[in-house]
Each structure stands twice: as C-alpha cells, then as structure tokens.
Amino acid sequence: SFAAAVLLVQISIINRLPREHSDSSETYNMPLTGTDQNGWAEEQRSKTMEKKCSAAVDKLVDCGINFLAIDFDQTMIDVHTGGRWKGTALELTEHMRPVFLHLVPAATNRNIRIAICTFSGQTKHIRDVTEYVFPNIADLIVIRGNDKTWEYHGNGFKRGKQEHIASAAEELLAEQALGVTDVTKATTLLIDDDPKNIRMSLKDRTRAIWFNPKEPNELLNNILLLK
Q1: CB of 145 within 8 A of CB of 126?
Q2: Is residue 139 very low, low, confident or very high in pLDDT (cuts 50, 70, 90)?
Q3: Which candidate, 17, 50, 19, 51, places its Cα nearest to that of 36?
Q4: pTM, two decimal places
Q5: Which residues pair with residue 207 across a beta bridge?
Q6: For 59-80, how does the pLDDT look when each residue is reduced to its tens digit (9 = 90+)?
Q7: Which of 77, 82, 156, 171 is deepest in the core (most CB within 10 A)?
Q8: Is it the case that residue 196 has pLDDT exceeding 60?
C-alpha cells in the first residue's frame, strides 16, 4: 500500500540521518567494528550536512529569499530521466540527493516555499516522490513540468525555466494556505544544473545558482556566497 511504501522510504531516509547511540558504559567499552565505524562516519557526515543546511537557510532568509525553484533531473535527483522514467516513483526516491533531503525541510520550516521546476512531463511521478520523501510538507511543494496542465499568461520572460517559476509563484500567491504572500523576482532563487537556465534567470533579474551534479554539496557553500 501507499502508506507502507511511505514507511519504507522514511526508514531508508532515517538510515541516512543521525543515529542515536546508547549511553551505556558497556556500549562505550566495546571496540568499534568496521560496520560501527561506517555508521559513526555516516552520522558525522549527516550532522555536518544539517549544520551547513541550517547556515544556508539562515543566509537565504538574510537575503530575503522566500521561494526556491529547484530543478528535478540531475539536480534534486542524481539521474536524468529525460521525462521517460520507466520504474516506479518509489524506485526514483533512491536517487534523491541527501543535500535536498536536508535543505527542503529546513527551508520550509523557515517559511521558504519550494517549487520543482522541470522540463519533464512526468509530474505525477515527481509528486509521488515528494509524498514519499517529504510526507509532512509535500502539499506545500508546487510542481511545474511540461505536462500541459498549466499555462502562463503573464508578461514575464518565458525562456528557460522562467515561465515555470512565474506560474509556480502565481499559485503560491493564490493559495494563502501555502503561507507566502509576497513572492517576487527579488525573493526567488533558482537552483538548476543547466547553465542555460541559469543564464536566462540572471538575464531576467532573478537570482540563480548553478548546481554542479559532480559536487552536489557545494550548493550549500554557494548559497553562503549570495548577496
């Protein structure tokens, strides 16, 4: 069932997040096995990621960012589906990048809204992925893909991801339950692995960060450089 699948995904995610260790003296006196050492190292990496994401979100707030438009293929996930993913949405969750598993909830907790802006038409799969990996906040995430379910009729720039971003912003402004009322170009940040989309965004006076698929965690350092 869907609920069981969500539970499995949550367990998978929890396994990537910090683990609580027993505080008994017996545990501390036992030598670490190879598996224990790997678990400890993973825990430290996860804690470091959490701290960096917290600092990055602080920077976003300081810069007046209240809207993150995030690409999906090769950005939020580590594969490029080309809009032709043949597996299940549950299988696709295995390709979620850990940096976004931390950053998206952290940003949402500070009232920074998220939109997934993609050229993929498989938006149902993407929606299912968000419900699996972000079950408590998935309904706050707007999705804009090339699925012919929306149109942008505004006068804004329409090249690159700009009409996707503008349409998502319109939904955020229209849906008061999503919690923001003042989304503008000045409060928006695009995160995308395609340099063309980054150039179009900057040309449209919208801040953007190029996401390097080979160095995914560098995103957090780049956020700290925002002005």
Answers
A1: yes
A2: very high
A3: 19
A4: 0.82
A5: 189
A6: 999 999 999 999 999 999 999 9
A7: 77
A8: yes
pLDDT over 90, % of the chain? 70
The strand pairing partners of 144, in sequence order, are: 117
What is the greatest pairwise CA distance in the chain?
67
Amino acid at 183: V
Contact 208, 191 (CB under 8 A): yes
Reduce the DSSP state of residue 175 to 3 states and report it: coil
Residue 111 CA to residue 226 CA, distance in Å, equals 19
In sequence order, which residues have a C-beta less than 8 Å from that of residue 186 and are 6 or more positions away? 64
Query: Is the pLDDT score of 35 beyond 80?
Result: no
Cα separation, 24 vs 118, in Å, equals 49
Q: Which of 160, 97, 99, 103 is nearest to 129 (CA)?
A: 97
> How far is CA 186 from each of CA 128, 183, 223, rounded to the nearest angstrom?
30, 8, 15
Spatial distance between the Cα atoms of 173 and 208, rounded to a whole number of angstroms: 21
With a CB cutoff of 8 Å and minimum separation 6, the contacts of 135 are 6, 10
Q: How many residues does the chain have?
A: 227
d(CA 134, CA 114) in angstroms, rounded, equals 12
Nearest to 223 by CA among 191, 184, 186: 191
Tokens 């998502």 belong to 168
